[in-house]
């Protein structure tokens, strides 16, 4: 009974306990923490798998503790729903973009003839406060990040054009964009080509279910014209990304298969990820007033129970990764257009 009471207490305090525990090893019974974590995330295992998953959980716990105790780190990690996954398992779970061949940039085939966006003097920006961003969504066990990044950018553009915030259907893109591979990945620019040609259904009329099926757009609805095309953002340029973000939310890609993403909790990620892009997300703003800690405000699609309420702050530094930026964030920016 005592263990159950402690477990429920841990659950009740949620991420606060996880953050606290990650730096207070001597005060935590890992068995009780493991039980509380399983309860909170509704995990059940076979007897043989239980010992394996608990060992992974404890290894991740110790890694998080060491990271958070390092005063040179600019961000914090915490136990979350990915805590029972190895690095390799997490890498496989989150990958939703593959390299292209025979193009200028295998990680960003759309990065050709990018326009020059008008420069801006804005040093802070946040489309969330301006009404152009829908709540954080969750792609679940489907490699459809590209669809969520695309709908986020389309939702922003539609709001700017119509002053109405609509939530568009990721499932439509997963099921109906024949140039994509559903839960096996795609590129946002390809999805933007689809939306420009066909239009988009509202999410409530074509809801998401995290697996690919036959295209089944309701026959009694009119698809909404969202865009006529797309444009890329100049690579390796904080100034051009800043200029593009001030115009509208920007679809971008990052390398997310590292522990900096797996266990991100708060702060600014300035290291710990490369530029081998495998995950599409959305820049909705920035803060360039923090000397040494300038950052992009990035909306993810792993649910609001991940990261900072579904968001991650990524350093705005064009010296990282040979100019491609922290996590490769300056390598493949794309926006839908109406021209």
Quick gist of this model?
With 339 residues, the protein is an alpha+beta fold. It contains nine helices and nine strands. Strands 1, 2, 4, 5, 6, 7 and 8 form a seven-stranded mixed β-sheet that branches. It has a two-stranded antiparallel sheet with strand order 3-9.
How many strands appear in the DSSP assignment? 9
- The percentage of residues in β strands lies in 5-15%
Largest sheet: 7 strands, mixed
- What is the arithmetic mean of pLDDT? 92
Radius of gyration, in angstroms, nearest whole number: 20 Å
Number of domains: 2
Structural class: alpha+beta
What is the succession of H and E elements?
A: HHHEHEHHHEHEHEEEEE
CATH topology (fold) name of the largest domain? Cathepsin B, Chain A
What is the helix tally? 9
The unreliable regions are 1-25
Distance between the termini: 65 Å
Proportion of residues in helical segments:
25-40%
Shape: globular
How would you explain this protein's 3D organization?
This protein has two domains: 2-79, no CATH class; 92-337, Alpha-Beta Complex (Cathepsin B, Chain A). The protein is built from nine helices and nine strands. It has helices spanning 2-21, 30-40, 47-69, 87-94, 145-162, 170-176, 188-198, 238-247, 259-262, and strands at 75-77, 124-126, 229-233, 250-254, 264-269, 279-287, 295-299, 311-315, 333-337. A hairpin with a 7-residue loop joins strand 6 (279-287) and strand 7. The longest helix has 23 residues, at 47-69. The model is unreliable at 1-25 (pLDDT under 50).
């Amino acid at each position: 009974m005592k263990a159950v009471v402690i477990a429920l207490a841990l659950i009740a305090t949620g991420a606060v306990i996880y953050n606290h525990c990650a730096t207070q090893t001597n005060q935590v019974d890992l068995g009780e923490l493991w039980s509380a974590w399983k309860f909170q995330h509704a995990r059940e295992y076979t007897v043989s798998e239980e010992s394996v998953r608990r060992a992974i959980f404890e290894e991740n716990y110790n890694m998080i503790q060491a990271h958070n105790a390092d005063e040179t780190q600019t961000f914090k990690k915490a136990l979350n729903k990915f805590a029972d996954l190895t690095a390799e398992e997490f890498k496989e779970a989150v990958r939703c973009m593959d390299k292209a061949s025979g193009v200028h940039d295998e990680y960003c085939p759309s990065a050709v003839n990018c326009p020059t966006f008008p420069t801006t003097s804005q040093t802070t920006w946040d489309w969330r406060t301006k009404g152009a961003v829908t709540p954080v969504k969750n792609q679940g066990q489907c490699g459809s990040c590209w669809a969520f990044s695309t709908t986020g950018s389309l939702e922003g553009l539609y709001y700017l054009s119509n002053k109405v915030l609509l939530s568009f259907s990721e499932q439509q893109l997963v099921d109906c964009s024949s140039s994509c591979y559903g839960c096996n990945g795609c590129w946002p620019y390809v999805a933007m080509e689809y939306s420009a040609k066909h239009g988009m259904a509202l999410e409530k009329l074509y809801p998401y279910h995290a697996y690919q099926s036959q295209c089944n757009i309701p026959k009694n609805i009119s698809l909404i014209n969202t865009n006529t095309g797309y444009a890329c953002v100049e690579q390796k340029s904080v100034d051009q990304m800043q200029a593009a973000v001030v115009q509208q939310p920007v679809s971008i890609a990052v390398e997310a298969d590292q522990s900096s993403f797996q266990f991100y909790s708060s702060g600014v990620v300035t290291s710990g990820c490369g530029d081998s892009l495998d995950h599409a997300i959305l820049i909705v703003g920035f803060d360039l007033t923090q000397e040494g800690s300038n950052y992009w405000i990035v909306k993810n699609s792993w649910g609001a129970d991940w990261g900072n309420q579904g968001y991650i702050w990524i350093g705005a530094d064009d010296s990282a990764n040979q100019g491609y930026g922290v996590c490769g964030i300056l390598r493949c920016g794309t926006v839908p257009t109406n021209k």
